[in-house]
Give the backbone structure.
Amino acid sequence: MIDLAEDTPSNPLVRLGAQPIALTAAALLLLIAGVTSIAIWRAYTGAAPETDRVVASRQLQVRAAQASEQLVEKTKGLEATQQESIDQLQVVQDQLQSMKKLLASQQADTKRLSDQVTSLNESIDGLRQSFASVRSTEADTPSVTPRKPARHRVHASARKRARG
């Protein structure tokens, strides 16, 4: 019974497997038809994907090189701007230091002058007090009426003579 089952071809794949030359020929025909259709399509469109890829990669390389050059230029510009900013900052710092020194000098001068004004005010107050004490002592003593100077008397007597 086992022998009978093997003799009966019930599966169609088994029949194809029995004729490998026909199967190989059919696969070869399909492969040739596919390659031919691709060749016709490329010839009809006039562009091959490989050349398009090469052109696209070259364009990307050119764009990358341009972007790189632009970045280098911008970086150099930024470096120059940064150096200018540093130089300007240094000038401002130097000016600030000189202004601080000038301010300190002016403050020292102002303090010195303020001390001198205070000393003068104290001296003036002392003079006022001594002047006030001298006046009060003069007010306490009787005052002598001053006589006219001799010159005035001489002139006055000369006038009398001239009139009379």
